[in-house]
Design a protein that fits this description.
mainly alpha; 2 strands
Length: 528
């Protein structure tokens, strides 16, 4: 079990009863936390596996829910757009709501975060499975999908927000947290690969006909007899249910591994605090904290860039490049490349610093996006670009979650009594990420609608193909450049991180060894 120490950021010193060691053994007491703060590979893997459910389900929903609603559930396009938009909007707003509830939670024998993960998991699995079920009553379909989509997003938020905040609970060492984050990002990228592979390969076995060119032949599905068409549709529905069952099983197994392999403990000086900070006071402090605002602003633009590519990648491959049957393989190439290069980025940020990794890692996507915009349809070149793009995707996965704990450490030094704010930091970061996803979905849908997109068409007009190219290439390039400019304002460099690490370690050792009061902690923090 992971000995992640501390309610909010952890300290192994809290495990030592103050009466065990004599005053003359003070130096040994100081050394003991460093030994216990080390995380084994098993600890890190148990923590990392907990990131897979969110990515596996999110990938399946992100790439396949729209086409499922239109072609399998046969929901009309307007209603499908309402389901997708309301679901994304609700998903974004549940993050701060769950963060608020977690901040009000009391400690239990299981911790403060683990009960949320444990009790949300079975309900989330049921809701996810019902999203992919076609009810027999067409008049309630819209309400059905809207209800279970929003319910699942709420429940998966109850899993993901406390899991994200758990980063601060597994170790007080920045290097250990960064290493565990790298494990987590690797597993999460593997989760996207797994979600794509499972959903794509199972569903791909079913044949869903498309509409031919209006100026050409008739609709393929109408050309067949009604019995054959109904059979094909039922097979496709069963394929989606099978994929949902497999993914739901993965969700359950990963949650069990996380719960059994990770344990959160309270910070020594946090237990001395008279009363917790109110949510709204904590929210005001967090959202007015400069480094956090600058970090969120930078990653908001870069996240929007990559989400534009993600949301339109299937349509771009199908209609602009003409690779209808290669979309799943191209996506797998991107994600496998990203998975393999996450350890490289972890080494790079350790060796050269996180800000340098941001500039090089995220900007490395720009040349390949330009190449995609300029090249003609060429399958081999497209695979090369996909593998190269995975390198930048890995950086986009790893770096935000690696830099956010540094901001929280800096915040704790400046606000030594502001405990219980970690869920606010993480939930609002996830909120802004999902907000970017909603914006990208709205921009893409409106742009394609104005260009004359034909639902379920086997081909699209030239204006639609051009619009898809702009959404996947030029728009992300502009957003990436804007995000990198904002990162220039981010103040926490490697020197600042080292100073914060020393200051926090001194604060924890003092609190553990002498049981200092809140006033003493404040004075020590101000001196540091």
């Amino acid at each position: 079990m992971a000995k992640g120490e501390g309610a909010e950021s952890g300290s192994a010193a809290g495990l030592l009863p103050t009466g065990i060691l004599q005053t003359g053994e003070r130096s040994a007491q100081v050394k003991e936390p460093k030994k216990k703060q080390q995380l084994s590979i098993c600890n890190k893997l148990c923590y990392a596996v907990g990131g897979a459910p969110y990515q596996v389900t999110g990938c399946a929903l992100g790439f396949f829910l729209q086409i499922y609603l239109l072609d399998v559930a046969q929901v009309d396009p307007f209603s499908a757009s309402i389901i997708l938009f309301v679901g994304r909007a609700w998903d974004a707003f549940t993050d701060p709501l769950v963060g608020f509830c977690i901040s009000k939670s009391s400690w239990t024998p299981l911790g403060r975060l683990m009960p949320w993960i444990i009790f949300s998991t079975p309900l989330a699995i049921i809701a996810y499975f019902l999203i992919w079920f076609v009810p027999d009553f067409p008049q309630v379909q819209v309400l059905w999908y809207l209800l279970f989509y929003c319910l699942f997003e709420t429940l998966v938020t109850c899993f993901h927000v406390p899991y994200s905040a758990l980063t601060m609970f597994i170790s007080t060492e920045q290097s250990e947290r960064d290493s565990a984050t790298a494990y987590r990002m690797t597993v999460e990228v593997l989760g996207t690969v797994l979600g794509t592979a499972i959903q794509g390969q199972i569903v791909g076995q079913a044949d869903t006909p498309c509409l031919q060119d209006p100026n050409g032949s008739a609709v393929a599905s109408e050309g067949a007899n009604l019995t054959h068409s109904t059979t094909l549709l039922r097979e496709t529905q069963n394929a989606y249910l099978l994929a949902a069952g497999v993914i739901a099983s993965i969700y359950f197994v990963c949650a069990v591994i996380l719960v059994l392999g990770v344990r959160e403990q309270r910070e020594p000086y946090e237990t001395q605090q008279a009363e917790p900070m109110s949510f709204f006071r904590g929210l005001r402090l967090v959202m007015s904290y400069g480094p956090y605002v600058k970090l969120i602003a930078g990653f908001l633009f870069t996240s929007l860039a990559f989400m534009l590519v993600e949301g339109n990648f299937a349509l771009f491959c199908t209609y602009t490049l003409g690779f209808r049957n290669e979309f799943q393989n191209l996506l797998l190439a991107i994600m496998v490349s990203a998975t393999l290069t996450i350890p490289v980025w972890q080494w790079f940020l350790t060796r050269f610093g996180k800000k340098t990794a941001v500039y090089i890692g995220i900007s490395s996507a720009v040349p390949f996006l330009i190449l995609v915009a300029l090249m003609e349809s060429n399958l081999i070149v497209t695979y090369v670009v996909a593998v190269a793009a995975g390198i930048s995707v890995a950086a986009a996965f790893l770096l935000p979650w690696s830099m956010l704990p540094d901001v929280i450490d800096d915040f704790h030094l400046k606000q030594p009594h502001s405990h219980g704010t970690e869920p606010i930091f993480f939930s609002f970061y996830v909120f802004f990420t999902k907000f970017a996803s909603g914006v990208s979905l709205g921009i893409s849908t409106l742009s394609l609608d104005f260009a004359g997109y034909q639902t379920r068409g086997c081909s699209q007009p030239a204006r639609v193909r051009f619009t898809l190219k702009m959404l996947v290439t030029m728009a992300p390039i502009v957003l990436i450049l804007l995000g990198l400019l904002l990162f220039k304002l981010y103040p926490i460099d490697e020197e600042k991180r080292r100073q914060n690490k020393k200051a926090l370690q001194a604060l924890r050792e003092e609190a553990s060894s002498s049981g200092c009061s809140d006033t003493d902690s404040t004075e020590l923090a101000s001196i540091l």
